[in-house]
């Protein structure tokens, strides 16, 4: 059953609409219901849903259950456009192309570093990140020496007929800009365009939507209070620009179906009055605030609470997520989880599972063979584990129990941006809190060893704003 806010959005007249959907307010349900509403008027093949990652695409496909539905990431859409129009890639000196993989990028960067006789201390990933930021117009002032490096990188990609992820979006933008009839083809093919997580669009994605939107009808779902990817070039001004360009109508979703009332109440302290969430669950839930002396005491507190939660038989390890703002915070935690035989996983890493969990001899034997050949470890097949991840990686997900650690000024705020990032860090805090469904633990330390320094810490300013201190 849809609530009155959702129904109004689903049945809205055929005009451009921006739906401000707060955390846990059923935006996906509303988006898919809008799809069904439109599908009664046009073939589902002519409705395009754009979102930002493969997990979101898979989730939408699973829930929609329409095999002909066009649900893609922005990059997937761009890849389709380029592959369908190879003849026009001559504009960029390509006859054909394939996507470059991470190993190839690293190899090209290493060769260029040798060619330019550069010794680096920042790591290859930082260089790749800088190249990406230049392509997406996040960095506009470029060191002349790095400009040559950047040009050489692009030249190698062109010679090898390779494209990286950023190229997909940028080249699609230029194709649409330079070939109006191509743009017109996709406008006619997709007269209805649904955009999920609209607050996360960057400059080129905004421009592509602006071009498509001159004829395609835009239905955008977003939450400006969950815009946390400025380092990727996403800004609220881009979705705001689209609202103004197309004079979009605006509606809100404010009924939260995810979190218990105490968690919603805590999150509301970080929102303007006009965007306050309304809890719908009968469960009250708990928000537990725990100051600690240092990271050791913090880790001991977490281990103690986790053991008690599991012993209560109400929860499993799979119900627990530990969130951090910076990767440096997880090192001590990993040590204590290992020491206490608590299985955990870190996204994009092999999980740790204590060696005292026994597998059958046959499985162990096969795993040894697989490990030699493919470097597959026994831990990857253990399913019951907690998750240790960053707030950014947890975006769009939820968990029954969330431990949010390291809530200190010195830890939470970006070292280089300082307090200029206040609003984004507040949004990050809001995202972290609203991942929790039943229990939310918030910790901070008075002292912490961070980046090889023993530092005195101050409680995060938002803790006072949330009436926790």
Automatic annotation (TrEMBL):
It comes from the Bacteria. Residues 1-260 form the UvrD-like helicase ATP-binding domain. It is an enzyme of class 5 (isomerase). It catalyses: Couples ATP hydrolysis with the unwinding of duplex DNA by translocating in the 3'-5' direction; ATP + H2O = ADP + phosphate + H(+). ATP binds at residues 21-28. Pfam families: UvrD-helicase, UvrD_C. Keywords: ATP-binding, DNA-binding, Helicase, Hydrolase, Isomerase, Nucleotide-binding. InterPro entries: DExx_box_DNA_helicase_dom_sf (IPR013986), DNA_helicase_UvrD-like_C (IPR014017), DNA_helicase_UvrD/REP (IPR000212), P-loop_NTPase (IPR027417), UvrD-like_ATP-bd (IPR014016). Its EC number is 5.6.2.4. GO terms for biological process: recombinational repair. One of its GO terms (molecular function) is ATP binding. Belongs to the helicase family. UvrD subfamily. This is DNA 3'-5' helicase. The lineage of its organism: Bacteria, Bacillati, Mycoplasmatota, Mollicutes, Acholeplasmatales.
């Amino acid at each position: 059953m849809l609530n009155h806010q959702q129904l109004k959005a689903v049945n809205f007249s055929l005009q451009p609409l921006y739906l401000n959907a707060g955390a846990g307010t059923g935006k996906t349900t509303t988006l898919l219901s809008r799809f069904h509403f439109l599908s009664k008027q046009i073939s589902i093949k002519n409705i395009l849903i754009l979102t930002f990652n493969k997990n979101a695409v898979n989730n939408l496909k699973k829930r929609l259950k329409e095999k002909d539905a066009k649900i893609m990431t922005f990059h997937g859409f761009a890849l389709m456009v380029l592959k369908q129009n190879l003849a026009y890639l001559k504009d960029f000196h390509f006859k054909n192309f394939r996507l470059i993989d991470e190993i190839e990028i690293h190899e090209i960067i290493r060769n260029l570093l040798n060619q330019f006789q550069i010794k680096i201390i920042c790591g290859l990933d930082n260089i790749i990140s800088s190249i990406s930021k230049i392509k997406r117009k996040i960095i506009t002032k470029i060191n002349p020496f790095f400009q040559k490096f950047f040009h050489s990188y692009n030249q190698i990609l062109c010679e090898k007929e390779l494209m990286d992820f950023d190229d997909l979006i940028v080249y699609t933008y230029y194709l649409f800009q330079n070939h109006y009839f191509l743009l017109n083809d996709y406008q006619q093919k997709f007269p209805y365009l649904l955009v999920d997580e609209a607050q996360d669009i960057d400059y080129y994605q905004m421009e592509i939507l602006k071009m498509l939107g001159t004829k395609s009808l835009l239905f955008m779902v977003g939450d400006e209070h969950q815009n946390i990817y400025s380092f990727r070039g996403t800004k609220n001004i881009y979705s705001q620009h689209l609202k103004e360009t197309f004079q979009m109508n605006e509606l809100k979703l404010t009924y939260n179906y995810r979190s218990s009332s105490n968690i919603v109440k805590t999150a509301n302290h970080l929102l303007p009055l006009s965007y306050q969430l309304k809890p719908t669950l009968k469960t009250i839930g708990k928000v537990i605030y725990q100051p600690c002396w240092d990271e050791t005491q913090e880790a001991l507190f977490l281990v103690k609470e986790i053991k008690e939660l599991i012993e209560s038989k109400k929860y499993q390890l799979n119900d627990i997520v530990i969130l951090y703002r910076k990767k440096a915070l997880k090192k001590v935690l990993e040590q204590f989880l290992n020491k206490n035989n608590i299985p955990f996983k870190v996204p994009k890493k092999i999980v740790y599972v204590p060696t005292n969990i026994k597998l059958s001899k046959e499985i162990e034997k096969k795993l040894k063979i697989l490990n030699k050949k493919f470097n597959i470890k026994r831990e990857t097949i253990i399913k019951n584990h907690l998750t240790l991840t960053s707030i950014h990686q947890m975006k769009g997900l939820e968990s029954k129990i969330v431990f949010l650690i390291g809530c200190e000024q010195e830890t939470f705020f970006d070292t280089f941006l300082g307090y200029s990032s206040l609003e984004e860090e507040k949004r990050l805090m809001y995202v972290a809190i609203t991942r929790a469904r039943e229990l939310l633990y918030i910790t901070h330390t008075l002292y912490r060893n961070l980046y090889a320094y023993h530092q005195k810490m101050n409680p995060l300013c938002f803790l006072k704003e949330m009436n926790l201190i």
